[in-house]
Design goal:
The structure holds 2 protein chains of 2 kinds.
Chain A lengths: L4 E5 L3 H13 L4 E6 L14 H8 L4 H8 L10 E5 L3 E5 L2 E4 L4 E3 L2 E4 L3 E3 L11 E2 L4 H7 L8 E5 L3 H12 L3 E6 L6 H4 L1 H13 L3 E4 L3 E5 L2 E4 L4 E3 L2 E4 L3 E3 L15 E2 L12 E3 L4 E4 L7 E3 L4 H19 L12 E6 L2 E7 L6 E6 L10 E7 L2 E8 L3 H14 L7
Parallel strand pairs in A: 1-2, 1-7, 2-3, 7-19, 9-16, 10-11, 10-16, 11-12, 18-20
Antiparallel strand pairs in A: 4-5, 5-6, 8-17, 13-14, 14-15, 20-21, 22-23, 23-26, 24-25, 25-26
Helix pairs in contact in A: 1-8, 2-3
Chain B lengths: L2 E3 L9 H5 L4 E3 L5 E3 L8 H10 L5 E3 L1
Classes of the chains: A alpha/beta, B alpha+beta.
The structure holds flavin-adenine dinucleotide (FAD) and iron/sulfur cluster.
The site of flavin-adenine dinucleotide (FAD) has 35 residues of chain A, from helix 1, strand 2 and strand 22.
């Protein structure tokens, strides 16, 4: 008997890991991996960090940069049919519809289309405005990052802060504009975010918080207090929008990404799953509120879970309930590693348990995050993983899965 | 099977130590150490560690 036809849409980390896990668990499945980018699957985090530094600084050619990013895979060319360079535009009961009108017949569809940067709805300066999500974005931005150039970064989330730090390393003048009161505030909480603000200022970034961009005039960014900032290059890093338009009409809840259950099955749709940055799921480690989690670790966890689900349904084998991955993320700024475990964003209080936030970037600091008095996250700043490990172990012990907490 | 870590690109994320603590660990200096020769029962753990490494520094085979 021929195995099921499985189509994975989105050929990046989550899509690739899903294909690998499916190949291992359902050897007779016929798997198609669709990606709109012309590139084979690659890794995004270095695009704002070391690869951007090498690429823009001239130490790395375009080919070398891509080689550093390219995701190694356990798949051989016969394992999966790759269709790169064309987007999926729709889904219907028989399969996935491609931009050229062809239908890819599918028994199962896995959505792994990730997110795209939100753009400012303003005109002007189009030729110097950039975003940073993919390799082509990096390729367009890199030549603009010349020493002495004036860069304005709009949005001080992780990607905005990383590109600001990389810009300083490359010798640019950097202005970082953040509408909120502190950079990375939601993810880090007030005290740590304030310390990160100090770190950026100490490294020469002009950080303007509580300010929004009101307009662009040629070569200038105009803020809502009337201030004008001259710019040779502008990076918009204002958060993201999930790529779910192609799923319209599927029955899935697309209010923010794709709502999935603990098996990664999309609620309301048939034989549709979602993985990676677009999957919105409840994590019983914390509560029953479904959330999207834009961390690198989630594609791996959710891909294995999705493959397990399809394999269980195809073979009739039982599947253990529950999906409760421990989230982790990292960021590198000015040579300092920010390493988080758990969900610091959900915390009500933060306590420094090692070091001193005024010494940020010079000596290690470890911060505990709590909600309702219980440990919910740990962040290390400039701390070796060996030092954070014991705190992570305590966190794992504190976060036993909760039923409808 | 052999386990190799390309120390030039390893950025000490420690994800491998979490995924496969029997194979990867940190020594007293905070440097990464690993078991270079593993048996078949450890291959799945080693592969999980390799997948979890954000720098793709781990090579199994
Ligand atoms: C610059 C940058 C730095 C980052 N740094 C960190 C970090 O330090 N730490 C961390 O934890 N995380 C980081 N991340 C986040 C991490 O890279 C993401 O969590 C991860 O890439 C998510 O993988 P994904 O496969 O779900 O989505 P994506 O990687 O976004 O892949 C989705 C793919 O689907 C394609 N696609 C979209 N629509 C369609 C369609 N209709 N048809 C076909 N294909 C489509 C997209 O083009 C893309 O190739 C960073 C991300 C960026 C951009
Ligand atoms: S996960 Fe990768 S980068 Fe991190 S310590 Fe292990 S080998 Fe090094």
């Amino acid at each position: 008997m021929a195995g099921p036809q499985i189509t994975i849409v989105g050929a990046s980390l989550a899509g690739l890991r899903t294909a690998e896990a499916l190949r291992a668990s359902l050897p007779d499945a016929s798997i198609t991996l669709i990606g709109d980018e012309p590139h084979a699957p690659y890794n995004r985090p270095p695009l704002s960090k070391e690869v951007m530094e090498g690429f823009a600084g001239g130490g790395m050619s375009e080919d070398e940069a891509f080689a550093r990013l390219s995701l190694r895979s356990k798949l051989s060319p016969d394992d999966v049919q790759m269709r790169l360079g064309m987007p999926a535009t729709g889904i219907d009961p028989n399969g996935v519809r491609m931009a050229d009108g062809t239908l890819i017949p599918s028994d199962w569809v896995v959505a792994a289309t990730g997110i795209r940067p939100r753009r400012l709805p303003l005109h002007g300066n189009e030729s110097i405005r950039h975003v940073l999500r993919g390799f082509d974005d990096a390729r367009a931005l890199a030549p603009m990052l010349r020493p002495g150039a004036r860069m304005v970064v709009i949005g001080a989330g992780f990607i905005g802060c990383e590109i600001a730090a990389t810009g300083r390393k490359l010798g640019l003048h950097v202005t970082l504009i953040e509408p909120g009161p502190q950079p990375m505030l939601r993810a880090l909480g007030t005290r740590v975010a304030a310390a990160m603000a100090a770190l950026h200022r100490r490294h020469g970034v002009t950080l303007l918080t509580g300010r929004a961009v009101e307009a662009f005039t040629p070569g200038k960014v105009i803020l809502d207090d009337g201030k004008e900032i001259e710019a040779d290059v502008i990076v918009e890093a204002l958060g993201s929008l999930p790529n779910t338009e192609w799923l319209t009409g599927s029955g899935a809840d697309l209010s923010d990404g794709v709502l999935v259950d603990d098996r990664m099955l999309a609620t309301g749709a048939r034989n549709l799953l979602a993985v990676g940055d677009i999957a919105r799921f409840a994590n019983p480690l914390f509560d029953d509120v479904p959330r999207r989690v834009e961390h690198w670790c989630i594609p791996g966890f959710s891909a294995r879970r999705a493959a397990e689900t399809i394999a269980a349904q195809e073979t009739g084998a039982p599947q253990l309930p529950g999906f409760a991955p421990l989230p982790s993320f990292w960021s590198d700024q000015y040579g300092m590693r920010v390493q988080a475990f758990g969900a610091p964003a959900l915390a009500e209080t933060q306590t420094v348990i090692e070091g001193d936030l005024s010494q940020i970037g010079e000596a290690r600091v470890i911060i505990e995050y709590a909600r309702g008095g219980a440990l919910i996250g740990v962040i290390g700043l400039g701390a070796l993983p060996a030092t954070i490990a014991k705190h992570r172990a305590r966190l794992t012990a504190a976060l036993s899965p909760k039923e409808n907490a | 099977m052999k386990v190799h870590v390309n120390i030039d690109i390893c950025l000490l994320h420690g994800q491998c130590v979490i995924a496969a603590p029997e194979i990867f660990s940190f020594d007293d200096n905070g440097d990464l150490v690993w078991v270079a020769e593993i048996d078949d029962s450890q291959v799945a753990d080693a592969e999980a560690a390799s997948d979890a490494c954000p720098e793709q520094a781990i090579i199994i085979g």
